Structure formats: structure tokens, C-alpha cells
Amino acid sequence: MSWPHQIGVLPRQADCFQDRSAVAQLEQAVVGGGTAVLCQVLAGMGGVGKTQLAAHHARTRWQSGNLDLLLWITAATRTAILSAYAQAAAEILGADPTDPEQAAGAFLAWLEPNPGRPGRRWMIVLDDLADPADLRGLWPPASPLGRTLISTRRRDTALTGPGRHLVPVGLFTPDESVAYLTSTLAAHEREEPVDQLAALAADLGHLPLALSQAASYLIDADLDCAVYRTLLADQARHLTDLLPDLSALPDDQLEPVAAVWSLSIARADRLPPAGLARPLLQLAAVLDPNGIPASVLDDSAALEYLTEHRAHTTGEAHPDQVTTQDAARVLRTLHRLSLIDHTPRSPHQVLRVHQLIQRTARDALTPQRHHRLAQAAADALIAAWPDIERDTALAQALRANTEALVRHAEDALYQDSGIHPLLFRAGVSLGDTGQADAAADHFQRMVDVTQDRLGRDHPDCLDSRESLAYWRGEARNEAGAAIAYRELLADRERLLGPDHPETLSARVGVLFYPDKAGDWADVLATARQLLRDHERVLGRDHPGTLNVRNVIANFQGQAGDVAGAAAAFEPLLQDFQRVVGPDDSYTLSIKRQLFFWRGRAGDAAGAAAAFEPLLQTMRRTLGADHSQVRMALSHLAYFRGKAGDEAGAATACEELAAACERVLGPEHPDTLVAKSNFASWPSRTGESSVHQSTD
């Protein structure tokens, strides 16, 4: 036998191969602290290009003359590894390959450094290692003459340790994706707009294998990028219908994208706790790929779904009910196999999953299973949603997951019995954070769908219309709110009668947004009649009755009787404290309005002093990012300024600007106004419109 010597066939280099950051990492001879690199492990999800990177590195070293022996092994099983070692022993040592165990042992012994014979520079590549246990007793030895390179989807700790360096392989960057698509299409005399290529790359989650197969499909089907993206966005189409069949796969690929993860999922389903990997991936498939809160996965609705759809392994008995501990263990299993990213130290985004893994999981569902899954996900989300959103990050994550569920399974949330309450909760959450326009758009969609499926007179449609009217008003679309409230009132009077509580609620909206301007005397007279009707029908202590008193008191202040408004809020606050409690959000809102009108009545210093402890209570009970806290900060800044405390006013404006940017984003109108007020104090901070709701 002559040297140098190669055993095994390297996969050919893919067309338009991308020189990625992992290539440079593979060239490192030492890592941090000066530790020599003897074994490198390329780890990542299926389809990110680990095999191509391993082959490129091995080919580069071989062609540069730095190796005497290159052994390439497709390490799908322990038997395959043993067979490759036995073949190497037969070719190098003349060992008998019919006894693979003995021959493999002889080969590994030959790899050990031996001062008594010439050393050979070797490299062993174990590609697509399926199970770290398959290497037990078969690890190539640590040698200054040798290098081991492993590619795998596994992330087990058994693959790391002294002398072993993990090289994570991720997705293409956006620039790498566009560069790859551009060069691949150009090779076939095709050119597409860069913005369309960037959008297609994002649609495919920058997964190298998916980009390769999508480009091949585009070329073979003679489609332009925009048309293909439209087909891809159609959730009724399966991913397999939009990628090449087996005979047309590019770059000698063996599997379409949709099949890449099937073996990993099957293996995960066999690992303890058995039978849960697939249903948990299904649950994740209808939620946000960028992060699912732990509280959603721990909810009883999610656990019940896992229990119902657990795959029973032959000969293994499973407990009747899946527990949170079972769910946590299967999350770690899926993480080890690179099917998800599990980050328990980020509880609001504990599970991340690639969007194409999600789509593949959804495509495998029957319509009945898809419907049941969506219902379970919706039940888990609403159960995880706190009554008071003290944690902004959690609220944002819950809204993002709701949006994902609506995209993938909207039909399941609109049943003959009505709308799932999750949709109402998500809309209110949007509005309560200050995104009134987004809340109005959300409820407009609910109205449109409900009218089409359940009819304009369905109770949930009427409730959606009321929410739409309210958030139109909060978004300063007073004309739209007025129209919506008048139409709602007419329908509720027709369906429910004039004294029904929901009819009375619609009358409050009509009062707040009249179709034409009137004098304050008429407005207050109408409001007081509405109060008498509420007291007659609902009683003096009903929240609806108390809310009308709130509206009347604010109308008094807007009409110019600021002292009367402040006086009206005094007994109203006492009644709210008695009926709903001193720390309830409604009560705190009434207290905020009382202090506001006291300040407007001339006691600016007293109002400013009162707002300081109120803000402490609000932050404690409602959370620092609650909309009531931001309103109270606005009032505090205004009254500090009126009282001559310019520095204190500026400080409050700065806190308000920071809170708005944190919750609403840097470009939201409220953020921009708050920043402007801070930059140009004194201003009219605090003179915002009075809200009809006490929340």
C-alpha cells in the first residue's frame, strides 16, 4: 500500500458552496487557553450544511498534502463505524475484516503514537453521527499526529470534554442566503430582485438545505420568486409539494427537506420519556418559532394534549397523565437532537424551533388532529395569561404566540359556539400596552370573521363590535367609534331590549362619542339619565354604574367645573375601594383621576405629592410597564412643572420616555411625544384626553 491513502468517498462539494465562519473555526489548531484541538464536533440541526463543511475541511487538508491517511465514515450506526475501521485495518495492516471488532481494535491501536515506527498524519471524519453511544470504545485516540472531525445533530455532553472542541453550525446569515440564491440562479441564467431573494430566504428560515432545494424547484418549474413565495405562503399546500422530488434533488442530496428530521423525531420518540417528542413538536408547531413560554407548555391543557396523543412504544407502559417533569425531560431530549433550542433560563422563550420543522409537523396532521391541537394551544395560552400584565416580556411573548396560532389555525378559534376567549384577551393586551391602533385592527378582523361565520347578531360578534368601537376611540378615531357605537346600540336594543346590561353599556359608548357636538348641559343631562337607568337596572354598586359616575365626573371637569369634578371623585373613590378593593386597577385609576382634577383645580403641588406614593402602589400591584403607570407619570411631570419643580418634571418626563420606549418601541407616537416633552420642558404633559374606561 502506498501513502498518502484515502478510505471512503467524500461527498462532492455543493454548487455555490458558501465559505462560512465555521470554516475558519475548523482551521484552528488551538482554542482558548492554548488547548490543542484534537477532535472537533460540528453540531447543528439537520439541513444546516454540516456534512458539506466537514467535506470541505477534509478535502482542503488532503489536497494541501497535510495528511497521510484520510478516513471518511458515514457514522449512522455503530456497525457502520466498525466496518469502516475494519476496512482501514485490512488495507493498512492486512487484518482480517471478517472479525470487525478485532480489526477495529487493531486499527485504533495503530493510530496511537508509537516511537518505534514512523508516525502517520491522519484524519478521521465521522459524518452524521446518530448516537454518541455508538462511539463507546471506538473513539480515535488523542494524538499529535491525528485529527478527528465529527458532524452530528446531537448536543450531548458525551461529545465534549478535554481535547474535543464543539463548533456550532447554524443557519445562513441573511447576506449568505442572498449570495447563495443569487449565485445559484445565475448559474442557470436566472436573475431575481434582491428584495425578493431576501424575502424568500426569510420565508425558508435561512436553512441552507431548504434554499438549495427551493432554488432547484424555481429553476425546474420556471417560476419567478414572487410567485413561488405566494405558493409557499399558502398553508393549505404541503411543503413537499413545493420542493423537488427525489429524482430532482440538487448536489447529490438524498432527502427532501421535509424528510430530513424524520429519523431524529423517531429517535427522540424512543428515548425516555418515550412517545412524547412528536406530540410536543406538534404543539410547538402552531406557536411562535422565536420563543414559547414555559408556562404555556406546563399548563394542564398542553399536558392533556400530550397525554392523549402519546405514541405508545411496544412493550412499554406509560402513566395515565403526562406531568410537567415528563414535558421538561422531552424538551431536553429534543434539544439534544437539535430539533429545538431549549433555554430554561429564559422562561418566557423556553422553546425555539425552526419554522420549517414546524411546517413539517403541521403537514403531517389530519384536519381533526390539527383542530384539537389548536384548541389545546389556545387553552394553554389563555391559562398562562395573567389577569394583570406585570411582566411586559411575558405579555409580548403570549401575544406573539397568539399571532402565530391565528396564522396557522384561525378556523379552530371560531366555532359555532363562539370565539375562543384567547382572541379577546390578546386584543385587550395590545390596547392596554398603548397599541390602540393595533388593538382596533385586531378587533376589526374578529368582527369581519365573526360576521361571516356566525352572523352579525351573534353575541360574540356584538362583543367584538363593542371592543372595536372602544379601541377606535382610544386610537383617536372618534368618528369611527361613534358610528360603531350607534350601530351596536341599535342592534342590542332590537335583540336584547333597552334595559339589558349590554345595551346600557352601548349607551355609554354613544354618550362618550356623540354623532354631533352638543353643549355640556345637554351632555350632562343625558349622562345623569343614563346613571339613573343603571342604578335602576343594575344597582348603585355595580361596576357599570360606578363607571357612569366616572364618566360624569370627567365630563364636569371638561365642561370647566374642575372643582366639581374633583369633588365628585371623592365619594366615587370610596365606593370603588369598598366594592372592588383598594389596590384593584379600577380603584387605582379612579385615584389617579381624582389627583388629576385636584391639580387642575389649583393644587398642583398637592397633586404632585399625591402621585408619588400612588406610582409606588401602581408599580407594586400593576407592574412598572402598565399603561396606568405611564399615565400617572405623565400627570406627575405636568403637576411638578406647574408647581415650579422643573428638575422633578424633567425627571418624570425622562422616566416616562424610557417606559414608553421599553413597552411601545422607539417610534411609537407616545414615545416620541414623551421624548419631546423631556427635551423641551415645560410642556403640556399630562393634559391627555380623559378615557371613558376606569381601567
Write the layout of secondary structure elements.
Blueprint (H helix, E strand, L loop, with lengths): L4 E3 L13 H6 L3 E2 L3 E2 L2 E5 L6 H14 L5 E6 L3 H16 L6 H12 L10 E8 L16 E7 L11 E5 L5 H13 L7 H10 L4 H14 L3 H9 L23 H4 L1 H9 L6 H9 L8 H4 L2 H9 L15 H13 L4 E2 L8 E2 L2 H9 L3 H18 L7 H18 L4 E2 L2 E2 L1 H12 L3 H18 L5 H16 L3 H19 L4 H12 L7 H18 L5 H16 L3 H19 L4 H16 L3 H19 L4 H16 L3 H19 L4 H11 L16
Parallel strand pairs: 1-5, 4-7, 4-8, 5-6, 6-7
Antiparallel strand pairs: 2-3, 9-10, 11-12
Helix pairs in contact: 3-4, 5-6, 5-7, 6-8, 11-15, 13-16, 16-17, 17-18, 18-19, 19-20, 20-21, 21-22, 22-23, 23-24, 24-25, 25-26, 26-27, 26-28, 27-28, 28-29, 29-30
Report the helical percentage.
55-70%
Could you give the distance between the termini?
A: 85 Å
Main sheet summary: 6 strands, parallel
Q: What is the radius of gyration? A: 33 Å
Number of helical regions:
30
- Percentage of β-strand residues: 5-15%
**In terms of structural class, how would the helical and strand content be classed?**
alpha/beta
Let me know the number of strands: 12
Strand order of the largest sheet: 1-5-6-7-4-8
Instruction: Give the overall silhouette.
Output: elongated
* Sequence stretches where pLDDT stays below 50 over 5 or more residues: 683-695
Mean pLDDT metric? 92
